[in-house]
Amino acid sequence: MSLEEAFEETKKELTITTDQLNEITNHFVDELNKGASVNGGNIPMIPSWVLNYPTGNETGEYLAIDLGGTNLRVVLVTLLGEGKFKFSSEKYPIPEPMRTGNSPDELFDFIALNLHNFVISQFGEINKIEKPLPLGFTFSYPALQTAINTGVLKTWTKGFDIDGVEGNDVVPILQNSINKLKTPINVVALINDTTGTLVASKYSDNKTIMGLIFGTGVNGAYYDMANEIPKLHGKLPDDIVENNEPMAINCEYGAFDNEWKVLPRTKYDIQIDNESPRPGEQFYEKMIAGYYLGEVLRLILLDYYSKNLIFKDQNIKPLQVPFAMDTSYPSRIEEAKDKSFIDELFLESFNIKITSIERNLIHDLCILIGTRAARLSVCGIAAICKKRNYTSGHCASDGSVFNRYPNFKSRAHNALNDIFQWNCDTKDYPIQLIHAEDGSGVGAAIIACLTEKRLEQGKSVGIKSKI
């Protein structure tokens, strides 16, 4: 096989046709419905207990925190009404030893202390605060929620492993640490960042129909009607049933098609899955998320090398290290206006000298990988649109791939047009991907606002909560 023949074979494997887009989307709709059913499915379809749409007229001051992998982010959001807001924030690095331990006190006391100091920096003396500040807690770890103000941690991820938290509700653990310092804060909502993206964007733009993350991982959230969520039948409080209120659904659809019925996986995708910490899970995510795109490129190049098609008579040991290429590699390679940058990148990163033919090959492979990811990414969007009968609206999108990967947005729009056959100018497409508002900060604060109002009105915020 020649290098040209090998490339043509790879091109065929990585090209997603319109027929494939439609087949994947239709199966996606089935999987969304299955996930929302009583028996469930691959896609968790998690009820968030974020009830009601924001009107854009909400006002007031609300706190939010985001417990990330390496940093704690604290935000004060002032909702101004008319879809407007302002905010100030601080980041606090989480010390490495604090991510593991025998007791939750050290981490949650650290969060509470930084919250306390942040509130003082914003308001001055604590005793000047007339009533407790509502707090939205963005906790992007697997948690079971039976109410908006509860969250039982299933398992730590992102390098955290602290005894005494898994299997317990993290909200009272945090509230207890806050109470030790007598800080006037009430934790009223526990949220996922994708749900926050949906709500924050809908506050500023009432055309928002879903919130999306295209980053290290992928996810989507949208509003469904509470009475139309089969897995909640018989579990909803009377007031929610009577009003059939809208509830945000956190899809967690990176797990789409784990049964491998429609996704056109290549041998490279299969290798990535087999060598991952959790083989057989998150098939969809492993084909389109930022964590994996550089690895696809690396594996293709290693395959070509094994066939003696490229990098002849060179030591490629540095390239043989798993994930030696993060997604910045294909992103920067495709974006480079001067292709000599690719020569410099491979020499500096892997001590590999490339020829002009290899340079063009690598550039073209990056285009194929980026295009495939963008086209597959929209199947989740199209499926939600079909499930909810959306024919127009804005898809609020965030994440490093959406924000930084070259041509992702235009490729996604082209794929949506292939599915829906709008046949009009791109600017007139009725469904558009737009930049999202800050979900983990502003979104968490708005959700805290919506929850506070429900609690004040004595409305339910969960399966058994009627306060």
UniProtKB/TrEMBL annotation:
PROSITE patterns registered for this protein in UniProt: HEXOKINASE_1, HEXOKINASE_2
Biological processes per GO annotation: glucose metabolic process; glycolytic process; intracellular glucose homeostasis; mannose metabolic process
GO terms, molecular function: ATP binding; D-glucose binding; fructokinase activity; glucokinase activity; mannokinase activity
UniProt KW Nucleotide-binding keyword: yes
Ranges where the Hexokinase C-terminal domain occurs: 210-449
Cellular component, GO annotation: cytosol; mitochondrion
Pathway linked to the protein: Carbohydrate metabolism; hexose metabolism; Carbohydrate degradation; glycolysis; D-glyceraldehyde 3-phosphate and glycerone phosphate from D-glucose: step 1/4
InterPro entries: ATPase_NBD (IPR043129), Hexokinase (IPR001312), Hexokinase_BS (IPR019807), Hexokinase_C (IPR022673), Hexokinase_N (IPR022672)
Pfam family, any one: Hexokinase_1
The protein's Enzyme Commission number: 2.7.1.-
Catalytic activity: D-glucose + ATP = D-glucose 6-phosphate + ADP + H(+); a D-hexose + ATP = a D-hexose 6-phosphate + ADP + H(+); D-fructose + ATP = D-fructose 6-phosphate + ADP + H(+)
Domain Hexokinase N-terminal per the UniProt entry, residue ranges: 7-203
Keyword ATP-binding annotated: yes
UniProt keywords, alphabetically: ATP-binding, Glycolysis, Kinase, Nucleotide-binding, Transferase
Family named by the database record: Belongs to the hexokinase family.
The protein's role, per its UniProt record: Catalyzes the phosphorylation of hexose, such as D-glucose and D-fructose, to hexose 6-phosphate (D-glucose 6-phosphate and D-fructose 6-phosphate, respectively). Mediates the initial step of glycolysis by catalyzing phosphorylation of D-glucose to D-glucose 6-phosphate.
Protein name in UniProt: Phosphotransferase
Species: Pichia kluyveri
